[in-house]
Amino acid sequence: MSRCPPTTVLVRFVLGILAAIGLSVFCPGAKQFVMPVAQPAKSYPARDEHNDEAVTLALDPYDMADKANIFSVRYNQLGMLPILLVVTNDGDQPVLLAGMKAELVTVDRAKLSPVTPDDIERRLSHPSASANRYPLPFPTKRAKGGVSQEAREEIENAQFGAKAVEPHSTQAGFLFFDVQGVATPLAGAHFYLTGVKNAQGHELMYFEVPLEKYLNAPVKH
Known about the structure:
A hairpin with a 4-residue loop joins β1 (47-50) and β2 (55-61). The chain is an alpha+beta fold. It contains 5 helices and 10 strands.
């Protein structure tokens, strides 16, 4: 019986590992992604209420496996942290979000901006690659292969995309942060949101949410 040369065995071994990695971060055949139903922002532990402006912002990190099961892509294995952003407008005029800027500041003072769908797709195609933590002044190359249509649609559909919040309503969606190599992305971290404007175009006071409010909240059963 002939034996495979050592190089052939090595190639097969490496291909097997790569295949396992690909299967571990995406579950083919998983149910289609459905955005969780957002509750009014005041119902979440991690929130910042602007009572004078009648706007409340809340955060709900999807850091635990039971919550992350709504996704087919295992973002935690990619070093990505999905955080549900919820904005409730209790006022009588629209609130504008088109110019908003989000930032997660860790306990070590690392400033993380939300990654783009392209960043997530690149990480999904190349799990060892680093996503851009800070906006770049030039376009980056879009991931071409290695990402299924199902995963691409989930990534796009999960994004927070609201440009405004109508009176007496709530808008929600996910922001994704590259926390690869960050030991404690939530403990001691603060989230900031600027650039929110009222119907007259005047910017509201910035929002600040300590993530300890989420970590210290009673666990719901």
